[in-house]
Amino acid sequence: MTNVSHDLKTPLTSIISYADLLAQEELPPQAADYVHILQEKAARLKAMVQDVFDISKAASGQLPIKPKHLDLGKLLRQTLADMSQAVEDSGLALRTALPEDAVPVYADGDRLYRVFQNLLGNALKYSLPGTRVYLALVTQGRQALVTLKNTSAAELRPGTDYTGRFVRGDESRTDGGSGLGLSIAQSFTQACNGDLRVETDGDLFTVRVTLPLDSLS
User: Please, are residues 185 and 196 in contact by the beta-carbon 8 Å criterion?
Assistant: First the structure.
């Protein structure tokens, strides 16, 4: 998978470059629309190829990890701040319970940022309109536990492994999701010596991320 993903990048980069060049030309309105669609689809494909590349590297133990001492609560607040516009646009109510005291972990901040970005993005995209999303951080013994809960707009299928590659909650949706977000989140969490589990109860979708507390704390 790593090799195939790498081989796809070169021709895809060319497609994106030529589409961008076309977009700079004076084209008839209909042709300009076609170019815009081409740019959108190429960008989506590029993101999917990169996702597959990242997952395959994580699964093979080749994902570069640069751990450092972090405050998990601060990282979550930064993620929320960066996604504030997406939260506002979603129309969902976000309820957070983050401790004021530092929750120290030793992990790769960039990888964990991607984990929570994917989890929050998944909740915003697939929640029942007008409902609430809950994000909490607590410590349990020598572990930090992040819990994210939302009510799914689509009926959840019992027994489904939602962290599997290309698995989607609603197979009929055509919103551009790849079904890789949760798989990437789980792979990156594991690369940071953590654990990610998904639980469903009716339409309640819960993700639990546990990470060991920093041994120096």
Answer: yes
